[in-house]
UniProtKB/TrEMBL annotation:
Keywords, alphabetical: Membrane, Transmembrane, Transmembrane helix
Protein's UniProt name: Holin
TM region positions: 30-47, 68-89
UniProt key word Transmembrane helix: yes
Transmembrane found in the keyword field: yes
Source species: Leptolyngbya boryana CZ1
Length: 102
């Protein structure tokens, strides 16, 4: 999808397949943000679980459940980014590109 943003923040789009730019997943800031957020969220849970296991010999299932939820939502974010094809716009009155005018 080719998006042109004009000075008044209006947009015009083109959905021809040849106009859709492509890039590697490694170049995606969204994917890197999701991965790094997941790591930052899981690291304290892992440290807490290791400490608890060393002290008690037991694992806290709540920590494991939280890790599963974090990893599942991270995967959903990455899948959403890979499948994304529509233009995202901000509602009227908010800063950023508004809904395209037909």
């Amino acid at each position: 999808m080719n998006v042109t943003i004009y000075p008044d923040y209006s947009m015009q789009t083109s959905n021809s397949p040849s106009s859709i730019p492509s890039k590697s997943m490694v170049q995606s800031k969204t994917i890197w943000g999701a991965v790094l957020t997941a790591i930052a969220s899981i690291a304290p849970l892992i440290a807490k679980s290791i400490t608890a296991y060393q002290n008690t010999g037991k694992t806290d299932l709540n920590d494991i459940a939280q890790m599963v939820v974090i990893l599942a939502t991270t995967a959903l974010t990455i899948i959403g980014r890979i499948d994304a094809s529509a233009v995202v716009y901000t509602p009227d009155g908010m800063p950023g590109a508004n809904k395209p005018k037909n």
